[in-house]
Amino acid sequence: MNKFKEKMTLNPIMTFIILIFITIVVSGVLSLLGTSATYDQIDRAGNYVRTLETVNSLFNFSGIKEIFTNTVSNFAAFAPLVMLIIILFGIGIMEKSGFLKTVFRVLTKRVKKNTVTFFLVLISMVSSIAGDLGFVVFIPISALLFLHGRRNPLIGIIASFAAMTAGSGLSILFTSMDSTLLSATLLGTSVVDSSYVLGASVFVFIMTVATFITSIIITMITEGIIAPKMSKYEFEEVEEVPLGKSEYRGLILALGAGFIYLVIFIYNIIPGLPFSGNLLENSGEFYIDKLFSFNSFFSNGSVFVITILFVIWGLFYGIGAKTIKNNNDVSHCLGHSLDGTGRTIVYIFFAATFISIFKATNIGIVVMAALTNFFGTLAFQGFSMVVVLFLISLISSIFLPSPITRWAMISGVAVPMMMNAGISPEYAQVIFRFGGAFMGLTPLFAYFIIYLAYMEKYNQEERPIALFQAIRLQLPYSLAVAGALLVIIIIWYLVGLPIGIEGATVL
Fold it and tell me: Cβ(429)–Cβ(188) under 8 Å?
């Protein structure tokens, strides 16, 4: 990492403290100046409502009081922290028992490093089907994958995070995020055509193409730009011995137990079979809503479901390979990945505080409201509207990472305007989703801190990895993917290709 180091490296904790003070002061100045923005929103009755958003000042006594009052509760409720700690139970037993090392050796044996990177990137990207769970699963596992492959684990962390952020709007499968955004899209269509219908397969063609192209781009950047710039990683001297009968016995036992667990679980999320579908939320319209809606079992229990699977794999492997011999070994394995996480928790505390303070100022919402209002005043048609919506999505994702909030604000303006210009609402949603490629460039994204903390965990340099240094490492991915996705959007528009089954580019 020496080539990335600066003469003076500011510790991420100090960076967050500075950002917190800057945010508080800026909120006071903007509030004093009366900074605000208005935009049109569609209510449930299909009528436009003029909405005013203003900046809330925290640079006063009441603001400081609010910060001191809510900091502890905001940290305790910070989802990445809770998810990470629970997932680490499962990752710890898989790692300590030797399961992960054996699996990685079997899977990567005689496989080129580019191929390993490509499949890590692709799987990380597709993990969006489970929402944000991928960030707390694949960032730690990607580090271990590269570590056991005798490569710098920082490369795996960087590539996996890039796949899940630069490719955040991509998925071969219809996700719960797509379904949620589709509801806002349909609300926007009601202004022009109340009978417009959208299904779960309307994005499948363009999403599939974009997912594979993006995976290739991220792999090329990782192997061609990032990996060569990484410092030589010092590995522990461990004698590499061939896998023996005990390792294979443990692997077979672990995979068998995991298979039984998955069969039982999957049977209970399949509707229509005898005694099945017990874990579905049947009030959802699409199957993905029944599986991942806000009140569904999997949405609320997915972290624990995956953790139990990891524990089963690690435990049964340890029993078969005789690396786990008693209950004390089980306890030590469960806590293995939590060793040395003190700095990670400190990082998360300051990141959570910064994010909660920025949200309280309402600056991100005001920026989005201003961009929405700007889009509504455009006199552009067709191609220009496509490009502008994409750029607005890119810019707004830095200040307001949540795509649900952003699309809820702009869809009421963008969808009717684009429909009147002959552009389909489903294509408008695709443009917006592709515009999430800059999400990995902002510390306001909650899971950015997981990426930064794991970078530091495997950092062997004396100086810490600075926050803006971590952002710079993501910059090539974000720019390249954004450019590629824009090209795909333009090609689909100019040629008039269908974006999916019954999904059109133009009306």
Answer: no
Q: What span, in angstroms and rounded, lies between the C-alpha atoms of 438 and 80? A: 20
What is the chain's Cα-based Rg?
24
The Cα–Cα gap between 13 and 188 comes to 42
Maximum pairwise Cα distance, the chain: 73
Helix segments in 296-421, DSSP class H = 297-321, 327-334, 342-361, 363-376, 383-399, 403-420
As a whole number, the mean pLDDT across the chain is 90
41, 161, 359, 402, 441 from 347: Cα distances, Å? 37, 17, 18, 21, 17
Cβ proximity of 312 and 261 under 8 Å: yes
Q: Using an 8 Å Cβ cutoff, are 377 and 386 in contact?
A: no
CB < 8 Å & 24+ apart, contacts of 139-144: 139/450, 139/451, 139/454, 140/87, 140/88, 140/91, 140/337, 140/454, 141/91, 141/100, 143/454, 143/457, 143/458, 144/91, 144/95, 144/100, 144/104
Query: What are the tens digits of pLDDT across the range 379-411?
Result: 877 889 999 999 999 999 999 999 999 999 999
For 10-61, what is each residue's pLDDT tens digit?
A: 899 999 999 999 999 999 999 999 999 999 888 777 778 899 999 999 999 9
For residue 121, give the nearest of 148, 142, 140 by alpha carbon. Answer: 142
Q: Do 144 and 153 touch, CB atoms closer than 8 A?
A: yes
In angstroms, rounded to a whole number, what is the distance separating the alpha carbons of residues 346 and 93? 24
* pLDDT tier at 5, thresholds 50, 70, 90: very low
Percent of the chain whose pLDDT exceeds 70: 95
Question: Within 10 Å of residue 262's Cβ, how many Cβ atoms?
Answer: 13
Q: Is 78 helix (H, G, I), strand (E, B) or coil?
A: coil
Element (H, E) at 53: strand 48-54
Give the pLDDT confidence score for residue 239 in this predicted structure.
64
| Residue 57 DSSP symbol | P
Distance separating the N- and C-terminal Cα atoms of the chain? 51
Tokens encoding 489: 């959007």
Is the predicted pLDDT of residue 2 greater than 60, yes or no?
no
β-strand partners of 38? 52
Q: What residues have CB less than 8 Å from 381, skipping those under 6 apart?
A: 421
Instruction: Find residue 36's DSSP bridge partners.
Output: 54
Backbone angles phi, psi at 255, to 5 degrees: -65, -35
Q: Between the CA atoms of 449, 451, 454 and 455, what dihedral angle is there, to the nearest 10 degrees?
A: -110
Q: Which among 442, 410, 451 has a CA at the least distance from the CA of 428? A: 410
Q: Residue 239: is it exposed, middle or buried by C-beta count within 10 angstroms (0-12/13-18/19+)?
A: exposed
